[in-house]
Amino acid sequence: xxxxFLPVQPLYTVFVDEEETKLETAPERPPxxxxxxxxxxxxxxxxxxxxxxxPVGLIVMVLVAIWSPKTTHITGAMAFFNIIFGRxxxxxxxxxxxxxxxxxxx
Length: 106
What we know:
Layout: H1 18-23, H2 34-38, H3 42-67, H4 69-84, H5 87-96, H6 101-105
Helix pairs in contact: 3-4, 4-5
């Protein structure tokens, strides 16, 4: 099949030095993806179980939110204030909410 809008001769020619092509080394193997390199390290092997456990923790949090909204509000406030103001404020909010010391510390 011939396309009438394409020229018969190439528009340009490439001059290649044959000696130069003979001396070139073989191309290197492409690098592995970053996630494969990550999972070969110790940190990556620690990250794998965390990735597997995180959805379970989210499911438990949703179930607790459904069954006990008051507990969810206080633990959410504890988490928020722990991030913003620190552990001492978070512990005092937990105790003010009526939780036992063992639950507040966890």
